[in-house]
Amino acid sequence: MHHILYTGRFLLGSTHRTAWRKCCSSFAKMMRAVCVDVPGGPENLLLRTVPRPQPKDGEVLIKVHATALNRADLLQRRGLYPPPPGESDIIGLEVAGTVDTLGPGVKRGWKPDDRVMALLCGGGYAEYVTVPEELLMPVPPTLTLCQAAAIPEAWLTAFQLLALIAQVKEGEVVLAHAGASGVGTAAVQLVRLFGAVPIVTAGSPEKLKMAKELGAAAGFNYKEESFAQGVHDFTGGKGADVILDCIGGCNWEQNVSCLATDGRWVLYGTMGGRAVEGDLLGKLLSKRGHLLSSLLRSRSLQTGPPP
Question: Which of 47, 127, 196, 227 has CB 3.0 to 4.6 Å from 220, enough for a Cys bridge?
Fold first, then answer.
């Protein structure tokens, strides 16, 4: 009887330990994420437990320390900016954190616990996210992870618009709309680094002041004045060599008016509407203007930005 009872207790303990291991293993495969079941306001955001992504070939699993808030996230929450096909429907286009797990085929020397930041197609509002190693960047030691999380989307957008799309040259005048936005503030600083001259539009004196503190040579309050006239006055009638435009439709006439001959108008958003009425093509043609457009999120790893 003694041996039977002892065996019974042993088997019960073994069963308990096995169940506990299974429970822990199952829990380790899950994570918390911010989800949206019904598009709408911030009250529709839900904190939910979901399966943790597993890194595929050439991917790295990041343990997220911080993410950022972009206009694209707000649009996706409202159901107006869906992720590209096959990408995570969890919001979040940039993160900073540490390397957790390397997928098969990773070649670039990343190690567990490396501090990294990354540009994403989605999935940043979660405890973990997988990233192709091509989109992973080391966090400089001078930056905190919270600071690093605000870099990839805004700064890479600004860089690719200025350097790869517009190909800004030293001494050129660059007009950046929404000069106090994430992309706008990054653009002002990058334009200065390129040896060009940044000017901006914004909707309040406070925003214009901030842009000027970051390096903007001039700023125009689009709610109170014609920014086209301001650009003409600043450039002595020559106009802006490059316009970074996230507004679109409602600004087209002023944009063409203040665009320099052979200038580049780079469209990367349509906050002011998509419809255009009037002689856009004729007026742009008279300036020999270049109308360029670009989006970052819809690019594949294969196509990438133009060289």
Answer: 227
The answer to whether 197 and 172 are in contact (CB under 8 A) is yes
Q: Which residues does 248 contact at the CB level (< 8 Å), separation at least 6? A: 267, 269, 270, 271, 272, 273, 274
Place of tokens 């439709």: 249
- Give yes or no for a contact between 269 and 242, defined as CB atoms under 8 angstroms apart: no
Count CB atoms within 10 A of the CB of residue 304.
11
Say what the pTM is.
0.81
C-beta neighbour count of 290 within 10 angstroms: 15
As a dihedral over the C-alpha atoms of residue 152, residue 294, residue 287, residue 279, rounded to 10 degrees, the angle is -130
Closest to 190 in 3D by CA, of 172, 205, 208, 206: 172
- How far, rounded to the nearest angstrom, does the alpha carbon of residue 153 sit from its chain's CA centroid? 2
Q: What is the pLDDT of residues 176-220, one digit of tens each?
A: 999 999 999 999 999 999 999 999 999 999 999 999 999 999 999
Measured in whole angstroms, the distance separating CA 204 from the mean position of its chain's CA atoms is: 24
Give mean pLDDT in consecutive 10-residue pieces for the chain, a chain of 307 residues.
38 47 59 94 94 96 95 91 88 96 93 96 95 95 96 93 97 97 96 98 97 97 95 97 92 94 94 84 94 73 51
| Residue 83, helix vs strand vs coil | coil
Single-letter amino acid code for the residue at 124: G
- Angle, vertex CA 135, rays to CA 160 and CA 175, nearest 5: 15
Q: Which of 278, 222, 226, 269 is nearest to 247 (CA)?
A: 269
Query: Which amino acid is present at 156?
Result: L
Rounded Cα distance between 89 and 81, Å, is 10
Strand partners, 221: 202
Q: Residue 24: what residue type?
A: C
